[in-house]
Amino acid sequence: MTTPATGPVLVLLDHAADGVLRLPALELLTAARSLGTVQGVWVAGADGPAPDARALELLGTHGVETVHRLDVGDADVRLTPVVAQGLTALLERTGASVLLLTSSFENKEVAARVGVATGAGVVVDASALEVAGDRLVAAKTVFAGTWNTRCAVRTPLAVIALKAGSVQAEPAAEPTTVTVVSQTVAVDSGARRVTVAEHTERAASTRPDLGAAQVVVVGGRGTNGDFAPLEELADLLGGAVGATRVATDEGWIGHDAQIGQTGVTVAPQLYIGAGVSGAVHHRGGMQSAGTIVAINNDPEAPIFEIADFGIVGDLFAVLPQATAELRRLKG
Ligand SMILES: Cc1cc2nc3c(=O)[nH]c(=O)nc-3n(C[C@H](O)[C@H](O)[C@H](O)COP(=O)(O)OP(=O)(O)OC[C@H]3O[C@@H](n4cnc5c(N)ncnc54)[C@H](O)[C@@H]3O)c2cc1C
Predict the structure, then answer these.
(1) Strand, helix or coil at 83?
(2) C-beta separation of 211 from 228 below 8 A
(3) Distance in angstroms (rounded) separating the CA atoms of residues 3 and 263
(4) Mutation test of ligand 1: which of 253, 277, 287 has the most ligand atoms closer than 8 Å to its C-beta?
(5) d(CA 51, CA 69)
(6) Domain-by-domain residue ranges, the chain?
(7) 63, 9 in Cβ contact below 8 A?
(8) Strands 121-126 and 240-243, how do they pair?
(9) Which fold has domain 215-330?
(10) Backbone angles phi, psi at 222, to 5 degrees
(11) DSSP 27-82
(12) Whose alpha carbon is nearest atom 38 of ligand 1?
């Protein structure tokens, strides 16, 4: 792969509240290395964590040369206009030609704001990146997953939000020594028009984030509200539990578990759908999964059209058998 990047590639580093880097950040770094010199952007509030020795070692292992620690004073980094202004200033200061973010709800908004501020070409929900000639090309599905597209960015600056799980995170061939640079950015009043009145942390779960999980077990109307067999299988595989809109609308599971056009987009290595028909609005959020397994008692269910493995049967009979067999194989 040749590189189109004339300036560095900036990567927004997703991390947990305790400063632990999230897997999608390492995936972005892996993608970024094939484009040019990799620089990370660390965003945390005034009271938030700085990149500690463990994070810096991991970043070095993944080929990061510089980490820009964004200091926006007393502005609230939970607000997307604040993060967007910070990144816009950094892009100008560093002369970067690519900004990579994980394709979350917040980051997609940040990407759009940066695009407006800089005139950059923006692609969100990308599932792959490549260089064609002197252009960066991002792959993405559109129209609820009915079309696969390749979008070439024609502006000098490209802003790409890549779906978690699109790239296998791999360490760099040669580790780097990371330099941390403090970058102070004055955020204007326009980005402060909103204040966060209340903030409730989601109850801690031992399961991975739905958007970043490598295994996702998904339930639909066919569960009739009983997600227990799905949860058991997900826990055995170290996966997350997702749902169709029918299941979330019924209140069987939280709306943050909804996968699809109006929910989360996932690209896990393994998607297991149980009692899911495979409606086009749902497929738009999951069909770039590596392997799709479908369990449905209707052999005509549309999900079988995109499934790599299909089981025609009652999910309440199939899932416990699968879980028991996997448990036996795991010893
Ligand atoms: C604008 C718009 C946006 C939308 N956005 C989304 C979205 O983001 N995500 C989303 O998921 N949907 C979305 N929808 C809804 C979508 O169109 C479908 O209605 C929904 O995905 C269907 O959910 P389902 O597969 O759970 O239910 P159904 O389509 O009713 O399918 C249930 C399936 O379960 C099977 N089944 C029943 N019992 C069993 C059993 N015991 N064992 C095995 N199989 C069984 C049935 O055969 C059936 O195939 C949207 C709709 C609109 C109009």
Answers:
(1) helix
(2) no
(3) 34
(4) 277
(5) 8
(6) 9-192, 215-330
(7) no
(8) unpaired
(9) Rossmann fold (3.40.50)
(10) -60, -20
(11) HHHHHHHTTS-EEEEEE--TTSPPP-HHHHHHHHHTT--EEEEEE-TTS-TTSHHH
(12) 222
How many Å lie between the centroid of ligand 1 and the Cα of residue 322? 22
Q: Which atom of ligand 1 is nearest to the CA of 259?
A: 9
Tokens of 145: 């997953």
Ligand 1 centroid distance, CA of 141 (Å): 20
Alpha-carbon dihedral 99, 17, 23, 211, rounded to 10 degrees:
-90
Ligand 1: residues with CB < 6 A are 220-222, 244-247, 258-263, 275-277, 279, 281-282, 285, 295-298, 301, 314-316
Query: 124 C-alpha to center of ligand 1: Å?
Result: 25
CA of 303 to the centre of ligand 1 (A): 10
Q: Which atom of ligand 1 is nearest to the CA of 303?
A: 49
- Is residue 243 within 8 A of residue 218, CB to CB? The reply is yes
Superfamily the domain 9-192 falls into: HUPs (3.40.50.620)
Residues 6+ apart with CB under 8 A from 190: 81
Could you give the CA distance from residue 101 to residue 109 in angstroms, rounded to a whole number?
Answer: 11
Q: Output the residue whose Cα is nearest ligand 1's atom 43.
A: 296
Tens digit of each residue's pLDDT, the chain (331 residues): 334 567 899 999 999 888 999 988 999 999 999 999 999 999 998 888 999 999 999 999 999 999 999 999 999 999 999 999 999 999 999 999 999 999 888 999 999 999 999 999 999 989 899 999 889 999 988 776 678 899 999 999 999 999 887 888 999 999 999 999 999 999 999 999 999 998 877 666 789 989 889 999 999 999 999 999 999 999 999 999 999 999 998 989 988 899 998 889 899 999 999 999 999 999 999 998 999 999 999 999 999 999 999 999 999 999 999 999 999 998 8
Fold equal for 9-192 and 215-330: yes
Name which residue sits closest to atom 53 of ligand 1, judged by CA. Answer: 281
